[in-house]
Amino acid sequence: MSSISYIVFMLNKEEYGIEILYAQEIIRIPKQISQIPNMPSYVEGVINLRGKVLTVINLSKRFGFEETKLTTDSRLLIVELDNTMLALVVEDVSEIISFEDSSIEKLSSLIAQIGNNSLKGIGKIEERLIILLDASKLKTEVFQQSIGLEK
Asked: How many domains would you assign to the chain?
């Protein structure tokens, strides 16, 4: 049986995970986030990270939660998805957990149809449930919605 490691972070007081192979680094929220006009509300703007311009995505807003205020405890989880670097606003990053395939519950077809396509499943570890994101679908969803708003 194969296992996959996920970096676990908090959003809206729930635990989420994204495959560790996509994670590049975790940084504090910079003082300067440059806003870009006519972007979806979940796009906070862009930052300059060592000469690279990264789009800052507020996952709480993207998933329709109450707006998470950016605080000194907030972090940016820098991920690379298909050669695109994104900065994901998260409340906290807690740990790395490996899940066996058998401990990942696929979403029911109803949830998948009406819910969020960027969800991969639910990771179960003891009594905890960790919502696992599908990184490639997250990137596609973020950019398709942005393009749809520009039309």
From this structure: 1
